């Protein structure tokens, strides 16, 4: 350890030798720290060119990577735009298909209702045809079509064969089977 006088002398010498240097003030704290500061400064001066070179290389590499990343990001944005447009087209197509499907479903329902109505009408028409078929059959033989108009009542209820036989059996005085009015003559219809 330096005594007070020697210490002051040392500080003055240091101040003269190191005035203006960055670690000048550090020398006031004592020997070990000033030596450490000095060694750090020297190391920095030695390593600075090498670090600068490494930093420049790293910077260039980073710039290159940044450029690649920016290009990749631009491509990704472009691809995302394309995907967005595709998705929009798909959505529009889907909506159009749903509309077409709804229209077809409505058409199908209408067709089902129409078919049901037509089947019902067909059943009615067959029933009417059956009734007519029965109505125009001969009331005597029930097999041939009634084609004989009885006069004067004009009822049509039997075939010519049956009426000829009935009329002959009754000496041409048979009454009409429907209204019982005496038949004076008969006409065969041409159907
Ligand atoms: Zn008959
Ligand atoms: Zn009659």
From TrEMBL:
<protein>
    <recommendedName>
        <fullName>RING-type domain-containing protein</fullName>
    </recommendedName>
</protein>
<keyword id="KW-0862">Zinc</keyword>
<feature type="coiled-coil region">
    <location>
        <begin position="52"/>
        <end position="79"/>
    </location>
</feature>
<dbReference type="InterPro" id="IPR051728">
    <property type="entry name" value="RING-FYVE_E3_ubiquitin-ligase"/>
</dbReference>
<dbReference type="InterPro" id="IPR013083">
    <property type="entry name" value="Znf_RING/FYVE/PHD"/>
</dbReference>
<keyword id="KW-0479">Metal-binding</keyword>
<keyword id="KW-0175">Coiled coil</keyword>
<feature type="domain" description="RING-type">
    <location>
        <begin position="138"/>
        <end position="180"/>
    </location>
</feature>
<dbReference type="InterPro" id="IPR001841">
    <property type="entry name" value="Znf_RING"/>
</dbReference>
<dbReference type="GO" id="GO:0008270">
    <property type="term" value="F:zinc ion binding"/>
</dbReference>
<dbReference type="Pfam" id="PF13920">
    <property type="entry name" value="zf-C3HC4_3"/>
</dbReference>
<keyword id="KW-0863">Zinc-finger</keyword>
């Amino acid at each position: 350890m330096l005594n007070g006088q020697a210490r002051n002398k040392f500080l003055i010498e240091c101040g003269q030798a190191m005035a203006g240097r960055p670690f000048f003030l550090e020398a006031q704290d004592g020997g070990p720290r000033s030596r450490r500061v000095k060694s750090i400064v020297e190391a920095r001066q030695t390593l600075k060119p090498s670090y600068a070179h490494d930093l420049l290389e790293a910077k260039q590499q980073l710039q290159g990577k940044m450029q690649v990343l920016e290009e990749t990001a631009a491509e990704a944005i472009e691809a995302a735009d394309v995907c967005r447009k595709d998705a929009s087209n798909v959505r529009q197509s889907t909506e159009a298909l749903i509309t077409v499907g709804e229209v077809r479903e409505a058409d199908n329902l209408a067709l089902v209702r129409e078919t049901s109505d037509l089947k019902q009408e067909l059943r009615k028409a067959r029933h009417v045809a059956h009734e007519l078929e029965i109505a125009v059959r001969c009331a005597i033989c029930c097999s041939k079509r009634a084609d004989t108009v009885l006069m004067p009542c004009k009822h049509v209820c039997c075939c010519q064969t049956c009426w000829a036989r009935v009329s002959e059996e009754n000496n041409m005085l048979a009454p009409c089977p429907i209204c019982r009015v005496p038949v004076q003559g008969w006409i065969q219809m041409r159907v």
